[in-house]
Amino acid sequence: MGVPPxxxxxxxxxxxGRIVATLRPGRPPFTFGRAEDRxxxxxETEPDGTPSRHVxxxxxxxxxxxxxxxxxxDSKTRPFDVLxxxxxxxxxxxxxxxxxxxxxxxxxxxxIQVADPWRVYVLELLPEREVDLTDPDPDDGDGTTHPLRxxxxxxxxxxxxxxxxxxxxxxxxxxxxxxxxxxxxxEPGAQPVTxxxxxxxxxxxxxxxxxxxxxxxxxxxxxxNVGRQLLAWGVLNQGDRTLLRPWGRPDPTASTRAVRxxxxxxxxxxxSALSRAVxxxxxxxxxxxxxxxxxxxxxxxxxxxxxxxxxxxxxLFAAAGGAVLWTPPGGxxxxxxxxxxxxxxxxxxxxxxxxxxxxxxxxHKPPSPSAHLRFWGVAPGRQGRGIGxxxxxxxxxxxxxxxxxVYVEATQTRSRACYERHGFTVIGQIAVSDGLSVWSMxxxxxxxxxxx
Length: 452
Known about the structure:
Elements: E1 11-15, E2 18-23, E3 30-33, E4 40-41, E5 60-65, E6 68-73, E7 80-84, E8 87-91, E9 101-104, E10 110-116, E11 119-127, H1 153-163, H2 175-184, H3 195-211, H4 223-232, E12 259-261, H5 267-277, H6 282-287, H7 291-309, E13 316-318, E14 322-327, H8 337-347, H9 351-363, E15 371-378, H10 387-401, E16 406-410, H11 413-421, E17 425-433, E18 436-443, H12 447-451
Parallel strand pairs: 3-4, 15-16
Antiparallel strand pairs: 1-2, 1-11, 3-5, 5-6, 6-9, 7-8, 7-10, 10-11, 12-13, 13-14, 14-15, 16-18, 17-18
């Protein structure tokens, strides 16, 4: 089912402050990438004069299909982000000749963000005429339109509990956790919300989206996209978070997000959680390329770093399975000679790469005093419960109160986008090796929080 012809809207593509194309249904796709035959060619020249290898020749396209504008990743190797309301949603590379990873463009439009080590390319997609997909009285058309219906009060609560309970808009919690959130809002004695109720409403709205041609919302891997698409299409809005205020009860998941300063007896659990969280990080993978060796070496290195940073008092631990390692302003030199000697012992044949990376990152750290966010992560089996967001927020709140700027290196576009949502800005890039760079990011203390 699609949008009747008279309700179909064109789509403007804005790049670097100007409209570069106006798309119409039925016309060829708009393509972007490094190749010269693209509708829009992007990708800086590398220092040796060759085209950037960080932007795919055929990065992506924008096309009309089944009554919907779709952003498609046409690359086989590189993701890019679609931004909806400031939230970065990765659009992954295609996995076969006949497949595409896609994102449906909602009536409010989206931004496409493609990054290489030298700059970030942003394409803004703007519908010419916003279509109200919840309009109960659609314009007369060909009779095939099935507008998205309005949420009733009960559905709005259940979907908010599923997709708005975490700080990241659209990120889903499990059905059990969502049922607890929703039940906590009800008057004492009311019938509790069950997992089946949550599952049922999510299923119905997944079908609603699918009926409009929205792709990528099916199966376990698509559950987060359901929430993001409901926000993108205006069915849910972030104001619906207020529905989750408990009825005189504590947050049912607060215990899973309890955070405390790292104690010496936390270090074993901390290094286990962090090593699993960052195991596939690009920089970590470069330092210790062999996965089998990484399994053995990484926990030992993180134990050493945790032991080094713990006495400084800034690092935080969540017993539910996450941690963040900080160094405060004015801390001791890092890495010093003794630490490098111990790294050599633990890393063995990988020691030169580990040494090189740590030394290079420290060399590019700004000279101004700042707190330094060194490592941050949540064990894979515990992600999606707000643990990581709570860890980061607690550390940033402390820095705001103490009027401390914060420095961090982001190793992936998704982590960079996350830091940007928490007030960081990119101040530079550090080339670690051919094909691997990290972003240097800086955050000034929040003046309102600092003054409170």
